[in-house]
């Protein structure tokens, strides 16, 4: 599988990527729940609601929303910030399924948006991050289909199936389900974010899925800024 970034977007977006295969995603080992809970407690000890907006990592994503996407980040918060605010208000992470919950834990730990995709749902086709074309349709998780405009950034297969509106909304078609076996991990970078943070967030997900869910590493973490082949 190859992942490319359209030349118009190189320098504006980049991603950390990895693949885990053969996961067992229909049960929660107690050790996994304990690890996720420890992550929650760690971020509660590290961050506070009133100072979160001043964190430099949060600022980089807010600036990207304002300047590249034309979205007011105080009205539509970056996905990882919204999750972290939920935790800092005393709520728990939503319980979806083990792989998604690991991704959410990584998101609040490293303050980056995490995308997780069922590889079999798009047949492992080559992918590209590009601007949408006016009129393309996208089926977001939990919402009606929507029509996109050409200022929106998307992750799609080479034949046009949209997995993600960058960097905040995933597709119903390619989402992780309990029967998912093969998982593509993408952590979304924006200017100001260092490669190590993206690599560490991917590695965190790989470590937990291989340790607790029986997964096997298929592609180790890499950062893609132009194009890359995803394999061992």
UniProtKB/TrEMBL annotation:
<protein>
    <submittedName>
        <fullName>B3/4 domain protein</fullName>
    </submittedName>
</protein>
<dbReference type="InterPro" id="IPR020825">
    <property type="entry name" value="Phe-tRNA_synthase-like_B3/B4"/>
</dbReference>
<dbReference type="GO" id="GO:0004826">
    <property type="term" value="F:phenylalanine-tRNA ligase activity"/>
</dbReference>
<dbReference type="InterPro" id="IPR005146">
    <property type="entry name" value="B3/B4_tRNA-bd"/>
</dbReference>
<dbReference type="Pfam" id="PF03483">
    <property type="entry name" value="B3_4"/>
</dbReference>
<feature type="domain" description="B3/B4 tRNA-binding">
    <location>
        <begin position="61"/>
        <end position="214"/>
    </location>
</feature>
<dbReference type="GO" id="GO:0003723">
    <property type="term" value="F:RNA binding"/>
</dbReference>
């Amino acid at each position: 599988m190859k992942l490319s970034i359209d030349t118009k977007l190189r320098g504006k977006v980049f991603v950390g990527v990895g693949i885990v295969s053969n996961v067992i995603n229909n049960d929660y080992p107690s050790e996994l729940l304990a690890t996720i809970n420890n992550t929650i407690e760690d971020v509660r000890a590290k961050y506070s609601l009133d100072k979160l907006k001043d964190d430099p990592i949060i600022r980089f994503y807010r600036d990207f929303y304002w300047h590249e996407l034309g979205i007011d980040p105080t009205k539509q918060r970056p996905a990882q910030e919204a999750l972290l605010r939920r935790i800092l208000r005393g709520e728990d992470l939503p319980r979806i399924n083990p792989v998604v919950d690991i991704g959410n834990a990584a998101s609040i730990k490293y303050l980056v948006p995490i995308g997780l995709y069922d590889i079999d749902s798009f047949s492992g086709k080559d992918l590209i991050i590009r601007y949408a074309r006016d009129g393309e349709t996208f089926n977001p998780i939990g919402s009606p289909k929507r029509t996109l405009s050409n200022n929106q950034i998307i992750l799609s297969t080479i034949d046009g199936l949209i997995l993600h509106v960058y960097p905040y909304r995933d597709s119903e078609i390619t989402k992780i389900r309990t029967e998912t076996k093969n998982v593509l991990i993408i952590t979304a970078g924006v200017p100001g974010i260092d490669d190590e943070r993206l690599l560490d967030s991917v590695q965190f997900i790989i470590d937990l899925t291989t340790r607790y869910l029986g997964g096997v590493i298929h592609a180790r973490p890499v950062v893609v800024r132009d194009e890359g082949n995803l394999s061992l």
